[in-house]
Amino acid sequence: MNSPKHVAIIMDGNGRWGIKKKNSRNYGHSEGVKTVEKTIEAAISNKVKYLTLYTFSTENWKRPKREISFLIFLLERYIDQKFDQLNKKNVKIKVIGNINKFPNSLKDKLKTIQNHTKKNNLIQVNLALNYGSKEEIINSIKKTVNLSQSINERNITKNLYTSNIPDPEILIRTGNRFRLSNFLLWQSSYTEIFFVKKLWPDFKKNDFKKIILKFKKTRRNFGAL
Is 12 part of the annotated catalytic residue set? Predict the structure, then answer.
């Protein structure tokens, strides 16, 4: 079997890792950014064409305001520091989710990086920001109705945030939790799911590679025999 085209990741465990190491959830989030960089490199090495990262969910607004502000700061800093590097590596950045709730400074940076990398084609990194799968499906159905389209699987799929993105063959969740947390529910109907005990900052390139190799040995029947 060839390498998967699309890998999606729930990057869980940053806060718990930070508390364990330095009694600081924010420290864990900072270190988690370094793992993102390594994972993008691992995806490129394994010829993955789409990498979707669950970066900020619709439920994350329930967290303390100080933590939310720090997460937004981290994302803005990452774009500022890594934009040129990602662009030179031919990485395309796409945001999925509703970013209207974010500060204008972040929205502007997200729009800029998407616009400047839209022609890059080595790998597409999808940042799921203020993303919730249930909301996405509801919005898709509303859009389908507003466009006077038939309500069927093809049209709902076409009107999701992930339109023109293949469904993930692999979904990885770190952090020793065994749930999907409202992430890509429609798109993951036949995705191979790998739950990893390691917290996200401890996730290594080799862990990514092992999952790819295990996937290649998996027989996928899609309901058939």
Answer: yes
Residue 2 pLDDT: 72
The tally of domains found in the chain comes to: 1
- Annotated catalytic residue, options 46, 60, 120, 139: 60
pLDDT at 79: 97
Domain of residue 113, residue span: 6-130+168-216
- DSSP letter for each residue of the chain: -PPPSEEEEE---HHHHHHHHHS-HHHHHHHHHHHHHHHHHHHHHTT-SEEEEEEEEGGGGGS-HHHHHHHHHHHHHHHHHHHHHHHHTTEEEEEES-GGGS-HHHHHHHHHHHHHHTT--SEEEEEEEEE-HHHHHHHHHHHHHHTT---SHHHHHHTSTTTTSPPPSEEEE-SS----TTSSTTTTTT-EEEE-SS-GGG--HHHHHHHHHHHHT----TT--
206 an active-site residue? Answer: no
Q: pLDDT tens-digit profile of 167-219?
A: 999 999 999 999 999 999 999 999 999 999 999 999 999 999 999 999 999 87
pTM over 0.85: yes
In a domain, 101, yes or no: yes
